[in-house]
Design goal:
The complex is a heterodimer of chains A (313) and B (361).
Chain A (H helix, E strand, L loop, with lengths): L1 H6 L3 H6 L2 H7 L2 H18 L1 H4 L40 H37 L1 H16 L2 H16 L1 H36 L2 H9 L3 H9 L4 H24 L11 H9 L8 H28 L7
Chain B lengths: L1 H8 L18 E13 L4 H4 E4 L2 E4 L3 E13 L3 E5 L6 H8 L7 E6 L2 E2 L5 H10 E4 L13 H12 L5 H14 L16 H13 L5 E5 L7 H18 L2 E5 L3 H7 L2 E6 L2 E7 H6 L4 H8 L39 H5 L5 E2 L5 E2 L2 H5 L4
Parallel strand pairs in B: 5-10, 5-11, 8-9, 9-10
Antiparallel strand pairs in B: 1-4, 1-6, 2-3, 6-7, 11-12, 12-14, 13-14
Helix pairs in contact in B: 5-6, 6-7, 7-8
The chains are: A mainly alpha (313), B alpha/beta (361).
Chain lengths: 313, 361
């Protein structure tokens, strides 16, 4: 019986027959983007094994080898494939390690945004009334502070209270916190809009008539039905968070020079761009652009597949 | 007012002959008294402030979805509520189930007031009263399998049951509505509308309720499936001794299904009567017009009672009888005074000054 074969289909079989996979197989851009993204993530994760040198290890840094150009330009040292920066760090290694920091901050910040935004959005949409008004005004206020302002205030406070050395140790987590706190309203608004649409459907009434508690209705019944837009904004937000991090680091509010992220690498090279050492800025800049581009392209594809009605980026 | 209605109910036992013998005096499972529900149209406080003739005033407008509904639902009966769109049928159903809080009035279930209880205190009643919804395409959670959907109420109301017991109960209710138990791992969208509605009925039956509110349960279904679902509901009533509050606008269904019928117009009940009585001899002018609109096989010269005008807006209710603007028999008293339900000699109740005064038969 054909009906029974579908009834007993496993998760894998359902995925194999899904529209998600079907559309992925036919979308070259999505395939290339995913490939590039996976390669970059793997390279970042495996940086300690892949990178020729460890930029955190001061013993490996040779100040005499500073500002060496990449391999295709005369005067390059084949030991440093992508050249070296002003302190003599190997650019390739530094970029791999820097991408690690950027990705951790990007995903960490988005996880925090999503956790806050989903909870607040669910509460606002489901409970409505004053809770809704309060949380949404809070979101408005939050959005009226730019990420930059939050970073300046939090960073300055942290440095003032704990000192610069502690700040360097915790800079990565502080950035996760700052970007996470600054951008949660994006999630809260999207989730709230989806919740309002789902709440009026009868399965929610059925769950209420059953006597289920609000928390279970929110997380077990409504949340799974709002996942599509959440996935889509997550991709966009990861890209945004990576850019925010780079921007903050570029302004000197982010990662310290001793723990380079892509942004702080760009910044450290910026002073030398006029003196001819353009690669210190340009190569990490290109890596950043490619990383953000493939994430955005994946997000675009996902949005087309899941077709959420609500998010406009 | 409630005492006069109680008294009026007393000689009305004869139509309950097909049901279990009601306990004398306390045969009402559910009593609705003076129920009102208003929905605000004016937004929040700041939006209500208006500038009128040089001063700031607070203006509020309401939709009076139901205003002063009195109903008794007796053990074992199927009370059908009929009326046109927007007359408040569904609001009554949703208020009874606690999905809406009433603006005024009270609801008693088996003698206990339930309209002001919080969700925890309401939990025991949730097991005894269940609801079936209109749209079977929206009433099943698209991300849950049928097995999960049906297990959820059982686990909630019987936390001490073993998993095997829960599964057994799920299979039992699935079989009872004609859905093969091994389809449980499927999702709602893999079923047809009729099957989904049967699954929704199974979900309501899973906690062994005694009272089911059905809000237009068949109006979203194919005609060929409607009879199937109706018969399933009637079968379930026989097996589980259920009491139904059945919201519909389909008078043919009422004739087939209902023990008694309540006719609603603009948020008020105009007539309640045993089904056969109502169909044979409608008393309220609105009911008469409604009944004359049923197409019949035998009449080749339809004699519809044509009502003049439109249903008034529920935002500004008419004074007196809500029907007076369209009633051919309305007089001054009808425009002034709101009629209450009075008992008629054939076992029904009707809210009409004309019937009360003997102007109308």
């Amino acid at each position: 019986m054909s009906t029974h074969s579908t009834a007993t289909s496993t998760r894998w079989e359902r995925f194999r027959d899904s529209y998600l996979l079907y559309s992925f197989k036919r979308d070259v851009i999505a395939q290339v983007s995913l490939l590039v993204f996976v390669v970059m993530v793997l390279a970042a994760l495996l940086a300690p094994w892949l990178a020729p040198a460890n930029p955190y290890d001061l013993a490996q840094i040779d100040i005499l080898a500073s500002e060496l150009p990449p391999f295709w330009i005369d005067g390059a040292d084949p030991q440093y494939l992508m050249g070296t920066d002003s302190q003599g760090r190997d650019m390739l290694s530094t970029i791999l390690y820097g991408m690690r920091v950027s990705l951790v901050i990007g995903f960490g910040a988005v996880a925090l945004q999503a956790a806050l935004g989903v909870c607040f959005g669910l509460l606002a949409g489901y409970l409505g009334g004053r809770v809704d008004a309060f949380l949404m005004r809070l979101a408005d206020i939050q959005l009226s502070f730019s990420t930059l302002m939050v970073a300046i205030v939090v960073g300055a406070l942290f440095k003032a209270i704990f000192g610069g050395a502690t700040y360097s140790d915790y800079a990565m987590w502080l950035l996760v916190l700052i970007i996470g706190l600054a951008e949660w309203p994006q999630y809260a608004r999207t989730v709230r809009a989806s919740v309002l649409a789902e709440k009026s459907k009868e399965y929610v009434d059925a769950a209420r008539v059953m006597g289920l508690r609000s928390r279970r209705i929110m997380f077990r019944h409504i949340l799974p039905n709002t996942l599509s837009p959440i996935f889509v904004i997550s991709t966009v937000q990861v890209a945004n968070a990576i850019i925010s991090e780079a921007a903050l680091s570029f302004l000197g509010l982010g990662m310290p020079e001793t723990q380079p992220s892509l942004g702080s690498l760009i910044k450290s090279g910026f002073d030398y761009i006029q003196s001819g050492s353009w690669w210190i800025t340009l190569i990490p800049g290109l890596v950043l652009v490619v990383l953000v581009l493939v994430i955005n392209l994946l997000g675009d594809w996902l949005r087309d597949v899941l077709n959420p009605r609500l998010y406009k980026g | 007012m409630s005492q006069t209605i109680q008294a009026a109910m007393a000689p009305m036992h004869q139509d309950a002959s097909t049901q279990r013998e009601p306990a004398p005096g306390g045969d009402s499972l559910l009593e609705i008294r003076g129920l009102e529900k208003r929905f605000s149209l004016s937004g929040d406080f700041l939006e209500q402030l208006k500038f009128r003739r040089g001063r700031i005033v607070r203006e509020q407008h309401h939709v009076h979805a139901i205003n002063g509904v009195d109903l008794d639902i007796r053990r074992g009966e199927s009370l059908c509520v009929v009326g046109e769109s927007g007359c408040g049928k569904s609001t009554v159903a949703r208020t009874v189930m606690g999905l809406l809080t009433p603006s005024a009035g009270e609801i008693r279930y088996a003698g206990e007031r339930i309209d002001h209880l919080d969700s925890k205190a309401l939990l025991p009643y949730r097991q005894r009263m269940q609801m079936i919804f209109q749209n079977p395409y929206a009433s099943l959670n698209p991300r849950m399998t049928i097995q999960q959907t049906l297990e959820e109420p059982i686990r909630l109301h019987h936390p001490d049951w073993k998993p095997a017991q829960v599964v057994e109960k799920v299979h039992e209710v699935m079989s009872s509505v004609g859905i093969a138990p091994d389809w449980g791992s499927r999702y709602g969208h893999e079923f047809s509308g009729g099957q989904r509605q049967r699954i929704a009925i199974a979900r309501a039956l899973a906690v062994d309720p005694e009272f089911i509110v059905a809000d237009e349960p068949i109006s979203a279904l194919d005609v060929s499936i409607q009879a199937q679902v109706l018969n399933l509901l009637m079968e379930a009533q026989r097996e589980h001794h259920l009491t139904y509050l059945f919201i519909t606008h389909d008078l043919a269904v009422v004739e087939h299904f209902g023990t008694r019928v309540a006719v609603m117009y603009l948020g008020r009940v105009c007539e309640v009567a045993p089904t056969a009585t109502l169909f044979a001899r409608p008393r309220h002018p609105y009911t008469q017009a409604l009944m004359s609109a049923i197409p019949r096989l035998e009449d080749d010269r339809p004699q519809h009672l044509r009502l003049q005008g439109e249903v008034p807006t529920p935002v500004n209710l008419p004074s007196g009888c809500v029907f007076h603007g369209r009633c051919p028999h309305a007089n001054d008293r009808c425009r002034r005074e709101i009629p209450t339900l009075i008992a008629t000699d054939d076992g029904g109740q009707v809210a009409c000054h004309g019937v009360e005064e003997g102007r109308l038969t």
